[in-house]
């Protein structure tokens, strides 16, 4: 359907019927008010849409989807719009209606004894974390955008974060889903069972599907025991190889209590300390590489601190660790994490940054960083690789800051070239070009380079089975 067809022939009638479903407060038409829903976080994509529709219930979502299916109008499901691959941004043609789930933000139920919480798709991640904490439980999904991202988007993109090592990705935290299918039918799969061996695990089709198979409207999520002991350390390591070795030692010494294990290069600390308020070097002397380690335990003074201290001391004696500091207070722990979070914020102050969200087997992280760093340095003189992230699960954010003094626009024109260079190396290492951000629009064509023809055909068959008209988030993922 063309933009002209919607605008001149059918938009007025469509708008009238949508208003009957969601009310006037559920529609956004003003250009300025629509803009936050049409622009991606990094400002690389700005789409167009005649309407942003914001339903307040599953039934309203179903009616909107059914109406658009009948009218053959494509939909772009959207949560908090904090994604980084333009998966929730409409195209520039203006043919798609944005379906934002932000008004569906209720916690429907919390069963502390079953360790579950049932939430609507528009719930802010931090809201779910707080509800769990009030019930003396833990919801472990944790990422930088948790104050604004919505759980529906987290599930649709299979979000990762800093605690994947211990608790898994978003898909590992889901027991059941409620989904509006592309024809407007509602699948009620809100089961709270740990064991249900009655056929295909349908919920997993929608987790990570980026809204291309249906609209997630609610979910039953797993909760965990709230930790009584939290031990956090910031340590200088000899190199990424030493970091991987230290990770294995910490896992063994703590009885698999390592929750987070983050790798940071010196350049990342320099950026953060230079540009982000509250960031300061935690150790007395500079080092080339660091790790941020956090352990959760079930008992206060349960021995985790001693186990980590002993592990770090042994590693120091063997030359793997150069220095380390264990947090003595909650403020010091927060300062360590502020430094990790500041690395993300600080990069924009250093000019253009070409991003890579990649993963390789944990054992191959050191070799990947070395090979990829050498390759981009050869391709672009003066480039500044910033390789950091969740080394505990093999997910490295291999970001490339522009050479000092370079023209930012000219440098960013090399985005596709440098992406291809890095992704080819990732592929040789048996890795993934998208570890936790998804494919969306930005990586769609690149993804097709690495998926086998059979794998792509299987994905297309699934898409065709659920969405034969191709109206649900078209042009994304596939």
Descriptive report:
With 478 residues, the protein is an alpha+beta fold. Helices cover 37% and strands 20% of the residues. It folds into 4 domains: 3-100, Uridine Diphospho-n-acetylenolpyruvylglucosamine Reductase, domain 2 (2-Layer Sandwich), CATH 3.30.43.10; 107-225, 2-Layer Sandwich (Uridine Diphospho-n-acetylenolpyruvylglucosamine Reductase, domain 3); 229-347, Alpha-Beta Plaits (2-Layer Sandwich), CATH 3.30.70; 351-437, Alpha-Beta Plaits (2-Layer Sandwich), CATH 3.30.70.2740. The chain has 16 helices and 19 strands. Strands 5-6-10-8-9 form a 5-stranded antiparallel sheet. Strands 1-2-4-3 form a 4-stranded mixed sheet. α9 crosses α11 (330-346). The radius of gyration is 23 Å and the shape is globular. 47% of the residues are buried.
Task: Trace the largest sheet across and list its strands.
Answer: 5-6-10-8-9
State the total count of DSSP E strands. 19
Overall outline? globular
Number of helices: 16
The overall pLDDT average reads 96
* Quaternary organisation of the protein chains: single chain
The proportion of residues forming helix, as a percent range, comes to 25-40%
CATH architecture of the largest domain: 2-Layer Sandwich
What is the end-to-end distance?
Answer: 19 Å
């Amino acid at each position: 359907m063309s933009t002209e067809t919607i605008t001149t022939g059918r938009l007025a009638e469509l708008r009238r019927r949508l208003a009957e479903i969601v009310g006037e407060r559920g529609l956004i038409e003003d250009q300025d008010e629509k803009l936050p829903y049409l622009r991606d976080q990094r400002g690389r994509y700005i789409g167009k849409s005649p309407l942003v529709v914001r339903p307040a219930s599953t039934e309203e979502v179903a009616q909107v989807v059914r109406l658009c299916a009948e009218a053959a109008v494509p939909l772009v499901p959207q949560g908090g719009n904090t994604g980084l691959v333009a998966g929730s941004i409409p195209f520039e043609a203006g043919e798609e209606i944005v379906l934002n789930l932000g008004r569906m933000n209720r916690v429907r139920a919390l069963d502390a004894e079953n360790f579950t919480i049932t939430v609507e798709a528009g719930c802010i991640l931090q809201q779910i974390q707080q509800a769990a904490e009030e019930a003396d439980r833990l919801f472990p999904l944790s990422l930088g955008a948790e104050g604004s991202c919505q759980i529906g988007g987290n599930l649709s993109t299979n979000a990762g974060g800093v605690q994947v090592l211990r608790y898994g990705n978003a898909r590992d935290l889901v027991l059941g889903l409620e989904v509006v299918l592309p024809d407007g039918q509602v699948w009620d799969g809100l089961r709270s069972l740990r064991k249900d061996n009655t056929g295909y695990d349908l919920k997993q089709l929608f987790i990570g599907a980026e809204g291309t198979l249906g609209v997630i409207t609610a979910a039953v999520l797993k909760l965990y025991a709230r930790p009584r002991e939290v031990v956090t350390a910031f340590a200088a390591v000899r190199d990424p190889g030493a970091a991987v070795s230290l990770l294995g030692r910490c896992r063994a010494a703590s009885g698999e209590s390592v929750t987070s294990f983050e790798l940071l290069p010196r350049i990342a600390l320099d950026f953060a300390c230079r540009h982000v308020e509250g960031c300061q070097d935690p150790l007395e002397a500079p080092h080339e590489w660091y790790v941020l380690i956090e352990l959760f335990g079930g008992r206060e003074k349960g021995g985790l601190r001693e186990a980590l201290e002993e592990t770090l001391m042994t590693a120091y004696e063997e030359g793997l660790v150069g220095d380390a500091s264990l947090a003595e207070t909650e403020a010091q722990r927060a300062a360590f994490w502020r430094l990790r979070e500041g690395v993300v914020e600080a990069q924009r102050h250093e000019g253009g940054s070409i991003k890579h969200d990649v993963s390789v087997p944990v054992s191959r992280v050191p070799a990947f960083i070395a090979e990829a760093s050498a390759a981009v340095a050869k391709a672009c003189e003066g480039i500044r690789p910033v390789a950091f992230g969740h080394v505990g699960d093999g997910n490295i954010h291999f970001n490339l800051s522009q050479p000092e003094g370079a023209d930012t626009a000219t440098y960013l024109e090399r985005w596709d070239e440098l992406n291809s260079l890095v992704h080819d190396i990732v592929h040789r290492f048996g890795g993934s070009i998208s570890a936790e951000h998804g494919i969306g629009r930005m990586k769609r064509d690149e993804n097709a380079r690495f998926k086998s023809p059979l794998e792509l055909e299987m994905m297309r068959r699934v898409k065709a089975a659920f969405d034969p008209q191709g109206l649900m988030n078209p042009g994304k993922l596939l």
